[in-house]
Specification:
The complex is a heterodimer of chains A (111) and B (113).
Chain A: E1 4-7, E2 10-14, E3 19-25, E4 32-38, E5 44-51, E6 56-59, E7 62-67, E8 72-77, E9 86-93, E10 99-101, E11 105-110
Chain B: E1 5-7, E2 10-13, E3 19-24, E4 31-37, E5 43-50, E6 53-56, E7 65-68, E8 75-79, E9 88-95, E10 103-104, E11 108-112
Parallel strand pairs in B: 2-11
Antiparallel strand pairs in B: 1-3, 3-8, 4-5, 4-9, 5-6, 7-8, 9-10, 9-11
The chains are: A mainly beta (111), B mainly beta (113).
Chain lengths: 111, 113
């Protein structure tokens, strides 16, 4: 069964810290992996998409890595800011069109 | 080029009523996907449609739920005789084909009272 797990479920850190969010998946035969941000009561914002042939993607203060062999991806956030507070979702796409989602990591950045 | 548009953004229904959720895909996109997010959970796939065709409805509950994507107009997710357990955020995504990144709408939050 294809499952996606995100640890931790919640994380609270002081402003300015660098942090890492984790995503693991049970089936390594992925097509791509995507990180999203979800603000309370709001929609989904795509942050980074990593194709199965890639090792990492960067956008501003965000860096996502992918290790298919170990079934893991990490989202690295540098110099965190209060505006980064949100729930971060990891979604894995296999050979079909469905996305398999993790339950998310709720991140709080304290000023 | 407007993004994926979902309406309404919030919908309140009493138990037993019908809920209709609409999704207008991005221009040029003929593939639509519906996902449901229960409180404190990740999204779960419901149904995949192309124009006038249901391709995969393996994630749809067997009763009360239906979806369509007509030749003209938005995709509709219809829930008949809603129950409290249907309360969730329903997200729609669209793509130009089945292998290209899908773009998500803002979601419709259904509350059943």
């Amino acid at each position: 069964k294809q499952e996606v797990t995100q640890i931790p479920a919640a994380l609270s850190v002081p402003e300015g810290e660098n942090l890492v969010l984790n995503c693991s998946f049970t089936d390594s035969a992925i097509y791509n992996l995507q990180w999203f941000r979800q603000d309370p009561g709001k929609g989904l914002t795509s942050l980074l998409l990593i194709q199965s042939s890639q090792r990492e993607q960067t956008s501003g203060r965000l860096n996502a890595s992918l290790d298919k062999s170990s079934g893991r991806s990490t989202l690295y956030i540098a110099a965190s800011q209060p505006g980064d507070s949100a729930t971060y979702l990891c979604a894995v796409r296999y050979s079909n069109y469905q996305l398999i989602w993790g339950a998310g990591t709720k991140l709080i950045i304290k000023p | 080029n407007a993004g994926v548009m979902q309406n309404p953004r919030h919908l309140v229904r009493r138990r037993g009523q019908e809920a209709r959720l609409r999704c207008s895909p991005m221009k040029g996109h003929s593939h639509v996907y519906w996902y449901r997010q229960l409180p404190e959970e990740g999204l779960k796939f419901m149904v995949y449609l192309q124009k006038e065709n249901i391709i995969d409805e393996s994630g749809m509950p067997k009763e009360r739920f239906s979806a369509e994507f007509p030749k003209e107009g938005p995709s509709i997710l219809r829930i008949q005789q809603v129950v409290r357990g249907d309360s969730a955020a329903y997200f729609c995504a669209s793509s130009p084909d089945s292998h290209t990144e899908a773009f998500f709408g803002q979601g419709t939050r259904l509350t059943v009272v």
